[in-house]
Write a structure and sequence with these properties.
It is built from 14 helices and 24 strands. Helix 7 runs antiparallel to helix 8. The structure holds glycine.
């Protein structure tokens, strides 16, 4: 089987790494992929947003199955396009991908079907938003309606921060047309968790919970990033809480999509917060999480391609997922200054040493090869995942690994897993 993976980050490296282990796969391509995964997948020089060219290429190269990492091609309708051309692709179609493409749409579904989430208001006019914010109680959460690469959410503790967020999103349009409308919602206190699930539109199988750490600095300080680290499983999500999340949130969401005439197939990622009043939805995404995938897939013992085929063929009743009992932790090494301004082209040292350890995986996100060296090439550079015996052991080991790697201006969070450690 010939498989194409679309995307170029750490999540896609983890997907390629897992697919490489499948006996059913002869050849993997990554469009555009990155240099760190080039020994596993042949790179194809097509931008992941160029869905027409991707479809042409997949047809010409007789691709048997395509997997999509990032949200942009899903929201642009890559699944519909591939299906029209008779090409097999795993993921939600354009209508379904609106759950991430439009926060207003996602919130309206949650409200209509009484799925627990924060109260909210939508604004198209910045003046009206400012009037509302002038009278509001803080903290509040301000979200650009469209895609903003995980960076379009601001938690405003004071009026001044809220006004600045509205200016940046709606007037300066730092996220382009994604800032045409904003959602202002109540701040919910609690602990965040990501549940990524497989669905054929009727059945749902959640993968083990993972926790991401979005703010750039320790203690959840600083601006949101694409994700600075993750771990799985998550000790504060008990088996009972997992069941509750499935019954109160995930199954009702799938039923809501059916009622709305949305044929939802593939991945549904629910960002949740567990509050004193129970679990509530922060957001939905139609894709694997990054960096959650880097801690979930290393624990999956099944053949990922067989799993995906069963979901696509509506044979989910036959699907029993098996998990490595160890805890996986991923720490992202980023360029200093990310997510705002940073330099690239720094030589990365110490990666060879990490290859000696079977329980250590390096997933490249923004690197480029220069002869026999790797250089930094983006804000998030790479993630180090370690599988250990429980969270403490994994954390100890992962930070030992982090100490072995260096590049100029390297930044990472030193408190990944702190909410579970504080238990
Ligand atoms: N981990 C955040 C995301 O994938 O959206």
């Amino acid at each position: 089987m010939r498989v194409l993976v679309i995307g170029k980050g750490g999540r896609e490296h983890a997907l390629v790494w897992k697919i490489f282990q499948s006996e059913r796969v002869d050849k993997i391509y990554a469009a555009p992929g990155n240099d760190g995964m080039a020994h596993l997948a042949e790179r194809v020089a097509i931008n992941y947003r160029d869905i027409e060219r991707l479809a042409d290429w997949a047809e010409e190269n007789r691709i048997d199955l395509t997997l999509v990492g990032p949200e942009e091609p899903l929201v642009a309708g890559i699944v519909d396009l591939f299906n029209e051309r008779g090409l097999k692709i795993f993921g939600p179609n354009k209508k379904a991908a609106r759950i991430e493409g439009s926060k207003v749409f996602a919130k309206s579904i949650l409200k209509k079907y009484r799925i627990p989430t924060a109260e909210y208001e939508v604004f198209m006019d910045p003046e009206e938003a400012l009037e509302y914010l002038d009278e509001a109680h803080y903290p509040l959460v301000i979200k650009a309606e469209g895609l903003a690469r995980g960076k379009g959410v601001v938690i405003a503790t004071r009026k001044k921060e809220a006004f600045a967020a509205v200016d940046k999103i709606m007037d300066d349009r730092i996220f382009g047309s994604a800032g045409q409308r904003i959602v202002i919602e109540d701040f919910l206190a609690g602990r965040e968790v990501s549940i990524i699930a497989l669905t054929d539109g009727k059945h749902i199988i959640p993968l083990p919970p993972a926790q991401d750490h979005k703010p750039v600095f320790d203690g959840d300080e600083g601006p949101n990033t694409g994700g600075m680290g993750s771990y799985s499983p998550v000790s504060f999500i008990s088996g009972d809480m997992e069941k509750r999340i499935c019954e109160e949130i995930m199954k009702p969401a799938i039923r809501a999509f059916q009622e709305e005439g949305i044929d939802y197939k593939g991945i549904i990622y629910t960002g949740l917060i567990v509050t004193d009043m129970g679990p509530k939805v922060l957001d939905f995404n139609p894709r694997f999480g990054d960096p959650e995938t880097q801690v979930i897939l290393p624990r999956l013992q099944n053949d990922l391609i067989e799993v995906i085929e069963k979901v696509m063929e509506g044979r989910m009743e036959d699907l029993v997922l098996e998990w490595d009992k160890r805890t996986a932790v991923c720490v992202i090494l980023a360029s200093g200054g990310y997510p705002i301004a940073f330099d690239t082209g720094m030589e990365i040292n110490g990666l060879e040493e990490l290859k000696k350890h079977d329980n250590v995986l390096v997933f490249h996100a923004g690197t480029r090869r220069d002869g026999d060296k790797y250089l930094t090439d983006n804000g998030r550079v790479l993630g180090i995942t370690v599988l250990g015996d429980g969270l403490f052991d994994s954390l100890n080991q992962v930070y030992q690994c982090v100490d072995m790697v260096n590049f100029n201006d390297m930044h990472y969070r030193s408190d990944i897993g702190f909410q579970a450690v504080e238990e």
